[in-house]
Amino acid sequence: MLGNPNSGKTSLFNSLTGLNQKVGNFPGVTVDKKTGVCRISESLAANIIDLPGTYSLYPRRSDEWVSYNVLMNPATKEKPDMLIVIVDASNLKRNLLFASQVIDLKLPVVIALTMMDIARKKGTVVDVMGLERELGVPVIPINPRKGKGIGPLKKAIEHTAFRLYKAPSWNFVDTDTLAQEPIAEVKQLLPHLSDYAAVHYLINHESFSLDDNTQESIEQIEQNHNFNHTRVQADEIMQRYARIRTIMQQTVVEADPKEKQLVSDKLDDILLHRKWGYLILVVVLFLLFQSIFWIARYPMDGIEWIFGQLGGWLTDILPQGWGTNLLINGALAGLSGIMVFVPQIMILFGLVTILEDTGYMARISFLSDKLMRKVGLNGKSVMPMISGFACAVPAIMSTRNIENKKERLLTIMITPLMSCSARLPVYTILIGLVVPGKYYFGFLSLQGLVMMGLYLLGLVMALIVSYVMKWFIRVKEKSFFILELPVYRTPRWKNVLYAMIEKARIFVFDAGKVIMVISLILWALSSYGPSKKMNAVKQHYEQLAFAHPEQQPELKRQKNTELLQNSYAGILGKSIEPALLPLGFDWKIGIALVTSFAAREVFVGTMATLYSVGDEGNDNSNTLRQKMGSAVRPDGTKVYTLATALSLMVFYVLAMQCMSTLAVVKRETRSWKWPVIQLLYMTFLAYTMSLLVYNLLK
Fold it and tell me: Cβ contacts of residue 447 below 8 Å, gap of 6+?
């Protein structure tokens, strides 16, 4: 399955394969490979590969090279038996360029004609039967978003599979006028090639896995005939567009473009306005972050209350012992640290999916291009950066569609500064601790404003870092920003709901596994320590309890605190505390910084475990927020003051704190140099800014 970007390819892939799909990687490259199984008929099943979108058979980006190699390279394992080419009826002229190139390869082809409803709104009428006659292959109009045309498409695939349709004997271009003799000689060498495929072997044979003799023979043919790549490519494109123009004159009726302006155009007049466009963008982002607090507040409070009550109830009914301690202060505390943030993660991803589905996300790229260029990037960098608000790993992988090497590297280096969803639990609990739940003008949440400020801090620092780095990364290559703006559409609510559930599932089961494992390990490290030290503490407080029975509650609190400090976790925290004290962090926060390097969201699970094991009042009905809010230092002052909490939030905004991100940067750059630089500069930035914030506010 292949086609132009934004032609409806992914929607059709999802419609055909449903849940029978998986994502991997193409061999030897880091481009995503989506495959799925589809039952075409009772007697026929198909394994469908969704190839990356491409505009023509002359690739420029790494993902376009993947599609090209699948079609052309003889060594590719994914050699297709048949091709489904998706053609956008509302952009027929441009889409037919690629479709005609694919048809000329003489492989079995079925055309799936999408966006017919948008074409009609533009006043474009397509004669489908006439188009099928002119192209020489089956053309099936479909609407995968609504499930229309899927049955006829499957029927056409079945007929093509059993050779009831045959590839046209003629070509869209006159290959004799392009390079008659070189093509003939290449076909003598490789008889299975079509005339048009032979042209591509002359142009790109160095990129194909051919034996040395074949490579040398093709190179010799080029030299003998003075084969000019650029001239042949230009002549071919001119011939194709001339043929496409003729086809459209015979099969398509187009309205006068001056007569009708689509709703999308009218909306773009407002949303892409030089002044109002940017104001609207800020308002949209503001509402996005406000909603995370507005909507998620009540389900989060409910989940906290349920786990608090459950912990208190289990404490009352279960016998005291290490098993009960492990269940309540290890497993239950870790689980509560996972589940309480599910509502916010679902809301964030649901809103981002709505922005993508409506087509507004592409407008954000367009609006941002001017600013991006000033710091060494371009508008295409915006999409990975916005994706970084969800997770830096897929965001960094999505930089592959940035053609310019310098801009791609800069985007990779700054994307982790975007506040990913893993930081959201950290921000939420700290903002809830120190920022009052005030509302200005009845609807502006102070907590929401602080949250937006943290996201903006990451974005601003990313732009500053990019501006500095552009002077040191010396790759001289021309940059172009070409972006197709999709038409505005109503969001597919089923798709939005699926994205919300899927992201929540990933958080609970993938991140949750890490959080639970670290919570249980941390419980063990927090509950046990060097036997000599631990026994000394117990004996000391047993003597005090015997001598002062009236002070039992206070002595029990002091005993739990001292046991935690002398545990293995306490020893680790105390050893790194001197380096963290200038930032306002105590030893418990130090432990959380170490454990959350595996995954940032582990911070909350770590805190839940530490404050449960060292629970001063031993009241498990208290929420984690209440326990952290009442935490005090040895001198009696509060741990989580405004200065400490903001310092910690700034640290998490700017610090790397993610092993997975470093691993994917290494894979994408094919070097350890860049992830090491990234780790060092982000750690330095985080420490310096946190130090500054703490000393300004304390």
Answer: 293, 431, 432, 435, 436, 437
Our CA angle for 207, 211, 214, nearest 5°, is 85
Q: The dihedral of CA 514, 516, 519, 524: what is its sign?
A: negative
CA distance 619 to 624: 11
Task: Please check whether residues 637 and 592 belong to one and the same domain.
Answer: yes
Say which residue the tokens 């589809």 belong to: 38
Residue 264, domain member (yes or no): no
Tokens of 607: 């805190």
Residues 141 and 193 in one domain: no
d(CA 629, CA 641): 9
DSSP string, 368-437: HHHHHHHTT--GGGHHHHHHTTT-HHHHHHGGGG---HHHHHHHHHHGGGS--GGGHHHHHHHHHHHS--
- Whether residue 353 is found in the same domain as residue 365: yes
Tokens found for residue 81: 């038996």
Kind and range of the H or E element at 22?
strand 21-25
Task: For 149-196, write each residue's pLDDT tens digit.
Answer: 999 999 999 999 888 777 777 889 888 888 889 999 999 999 988 999
Yes or no: say if 589 and 604 are a contact pair by the CB < 8 Å rule. no
Question: Mean of the pLDDT values across residues 534-551?
Answer: 79
Asked if 85 contacts 110 with a C-beta cutoff of 8 angstroms, the reply is yes
Selection from 192, 12, 182, 200 nearest residue 110 by Cα: 12
SS3 (DSSP) at 115? coil
The Cα-based distances of 314 to 108, 307, 432, 556, 621 in angstroms read 66, 10, 27, 20, 10
**Same structural domain for residues 622 and 689?**
yes
Q: Which of 584, 592, 588, 596 is nearest to 561 (CA)?
A: 588
For residues 628 and 626, what is the distance between their CA atoms, to the nearest angstrom? 6
Q: What total number of domains does the chain contain?
A: 4
pLDDT digits (tens, 9 = 90+) for 247-282: 999 998 876 655 445 667 788 888 888 888 888 888
Nearest to 387 by CA among 339, 419, 363: 419
Give the C-alpha separation, 665 to 676, whole Å: 10
Specify whether 537 is located in the same domain as 639.
Answer: yes
Q: Tokens 């870790």 — which residue? A: 334
Closest CA to 490 of 359, 358, 626: 358
Closest to 483 in 3D by CA, of 2, 3, 1, 5: 5
Q: Which tokens hold the place of 328? A: 């309540």
Question: CA–CA separation, 504 vs 390, rounded Å?
Answer: 12
